[in-house]
Amino acid sequence: MSGAAGRGNDIRGRADWVKTLAREVGFDVCRITAPDDLEAARADLAGFIDAGHHGTMAWMPETKERRGDPRVLWPDVRSIIILGINYGPEGDPRDNLIRPEIGNISVYARHRDYHDVIKGKLKEIAQKFAARTNAEVKVFVDTAPVMEKPLAAKAGLGWQGKHTNLVSRDFGSWLFLGSIFTAADLEFDPPERDHCGSCRSCLDACPTGAFPAPYRIDARRCVSYLTIEHKGPIDREIRPLIGNRIYGCDDCLAACPWNKFAEVAREQKLRAREDLASPPLADLLALDDAGFRALFSGSPVKRIGRNRFIRNCLIAAGNSGEARLAEHCRRLLSDEAAEVRGMAIWALARLGALKDDDKTGAQNEPDDYVREEWKQAGLLP
After folding, report:
1. Does 7 have pLDDT greater than 80?
2. Is the pTM of this model over 0.85?
3. How far from chain centre, in Å, is Cα 366?
4. Active-site residues: which are they?
C-alpha cells in the first residue's frame, strides 16, 4: 500500500470512528467539514452587523473576525466535527399561545441547559479522539464565536432555512449543535443543499415581522432576542405582539414543514420538564430572586436573571386580558427593579386596572424610565 493510500484510509477511518463514537455518546448526527470556504457566511455576518440588526449584542461586532474564520479562532484547525442532538417536542409549542393565563417558554429552555448536556458529551468524544490520534482538539458550544449553522450546512447536517436557523431533513428545525475543532486531517462530508423552495411558512409565522427578507433576520424585532438578550424596557409597539412568550419564541421553527420528519426527542437528559411546559403566570409573577433561582436551577432561563424574566411575564400578563392577574401585577409596582416597576404599570394599564390611588406612587417615582411609563398611562402630566 502506498503512503498516500494509507494516509487516505487513515483519514477515512478516523472519520468513521468518531461518527460511531458520537452515536454511542448520544448524538443523533455527526458530520465533518473543512475550516474554510465561509466567504458567503462572513459576508452575511458583516451585513447583519453593518445594518445594526444585532441590536445590543455588542459581542457580535467584537468577535466578528474570529467568528467569520475558524482559523482566526484557532490557526491550527484542519478539520471541524459538527454534532447535533435532536430536541424535537412532543407537540406543537404554539398550542400554548392560545392559553393567555400561562407563560410560554421556548422548547429548548424546558430542558436541562443544553450547554451543559452537549459540552459534557463533546468533551468525552474529544478526549477519546485526542488519545487515539494524538492530535490537538478544542470543544465549542454556542457561547463561543463559532458560526455553527453555516458550518453545519457545509458539513451536510442540513441547510440554513429562510428563518436563518438550521433545517434538517431528518430532524426538522430541532437540533442542538456543538463542534470539535481538531488539528487532525479527516475525511469531509458533502454539504446539504437548500430545500426551502418557495415555502415561506417560517417568515409568515413570525409575530413581530423580524425577517426583512428571506434568510435575513433583524434581532431587534425578534422575540427570542428581546426576551433573552435585550436588557431594559422593550419598545411599546412590540409589546402587544409578544403575547405570552416569556422566554424565547418557537413560531418560525415550529412552522417549518420539515418538522413532520422529526421524531420526538427520547434521550433522557433532553426530556422537557413538565413544570416548565405551561407554568401559570400568576405563580411566575410571585417569584422573588430566590424563588426564581430555585425554579430555574439547571435551566438556561436562569441566565437572564429574575428582573428581566419578571419583565417578560408582566408583558404576558398585560397581553392576557386576564383581570385576575392585575393583583399580581399591582404588587410589582413597588418592586426594587425599575424595569419591573415600569412594566407593571404597562401591564395594569393594558388590563384597565390602574386606579386614582396610583397617582401617589407615580408622583414619587425617582426613575425617568418608570416616570415615562406613568406618563404614557396617563397618571403623570
Report:
1. no
2. yes
3. 35
4. 142
